[in-house]
Write a structure and sequence with these properties.
Shape: globular
Number of helices: 12
Largest sheet: 7 strands, parallel
Distance between the termini: 31 Å
CATH class: Alpha Beta
CATH architecture: 3-Layer(aba) Sandwich
Bound molecules: nicotinamide-adenine-dinucleotide, 2'deoxy-thymidine-5'-diphospho-alpha-D-glucose
Amino acid sequence: MRILVAGGAGFIGSNFIRYILGAHDDWSVVNVDKLTYAGNLANLADKAGDPRYVFHRADICDAAEMSRIFAGEKPEAVVNFAAETHVDRSIDDPALFLRTNILGTQVLLDAARKSGVARYLQISTDEVYGSLGATGKFSEESPLKPNSPYAASKTSADLLVRAYGKTFGLPVLVTRCSNNYGPYQFPEKLIPFFVTLLREGKPVPVYGDGMNVRDWIHVEDHSRAVDAVLQRGRPGEIYNVGGGNERTNIEITKLLIAAMGKDEKSMKFVPDRPGHDRRYAIDDEKIRAELGVVPLVPFEEGLRNTVRWYIDNEPWWRAVQTGEYQSFYDRWYVRKDRA
Ligand code: NAD
Ligand code: DAU
């Protein structure tokens, strides 16, 4: 199978591409990514020369460019990871999130429809369901109640995906996953942000009272789930994906402080994120029952390996901090094309 992965230079997309190329000898991947601040070709440095992998720097909002890429590459399936993803940034600049996450999805859906792909899989999020109190879980039937501009834009995209399925008969699928962690996550998100701060001997900023709960899943488990839905999910269906692993932010912070050999005095409480969702928890019974997908990475082991990865790969996040990572495209692709 030849799949087009949009947003494959980001955290989950790059882990997914590595997973897919490893899991399926006869699959090839077309990675389409704009390389925003969150896109980093160093994430797939080991795949740059792989004959089963090709990269296009392109904006999913650019209809002409998408139609050119689809016509040239002829993918059989599309997996859309491309998005603006950081909630705090969506509070500063909602318009950018609406453009990429809604308009970009619509452009991609159109390109997929016109080229007649066999599957279109939208990577969504549990944030579309809003926030939970102390009990309960999100099922696929839970009402959509997004609270941040990011979550609202992802919800809108999900509705467009549904509409393209109903109106045009596009074979669409949606996955809604909880918080991912693992290697290559941009160091603005909680776990890599705190690990890199602690490594530099700096305090870590915990929002509000730190009692917000997230359900953490290793990115490899998410990749396995996406692979299963892509191959065996029923068109028109939505599948929740979760880690079954609820933790407060304080718990995560303490685990990271201990793993980095630091003092709990490193934890600093700072003003809360506006509209901060209190708790997410996923009911993943549907994907378990229908597709046999269960998370396999135990959290303690996954977190330990993740912390080790950031310690061992300091040049990766230092290049992000200095901005040097943004020149990788020129070094690996533009110069090669000119040679
Ligand atoms: P990320 O921010 O690390 O990567 C996003 C990627 O999309 C980057 O490579 C970026 O360059 C690319 N991109 C952005 N705008 C683009 C555009 N206009 N055209 C082409 N490419 C563009 O994000 P992530 O954490 O890997 O998340 C990937 C997807 O998974 C997103 O759709 C997100 O909503 C969803 N998701 C993330 C999590 C999580 O915990 N990180 C959980 C559930 C769902
Ligand atoms: O649930 C899935 C979502 O998880 C994805 O859809 C998003 O793309 C992804 O960014 C993530 O959203 P969160 O807002 O949950 O992730 P973040 O890493 O930004 O924050 C996790 C929790 O930690 C949240 O409760 C806010 C808190 N936090 C975060 C940062 C960056 C802090 O207390 N301090 C911080 O500095």
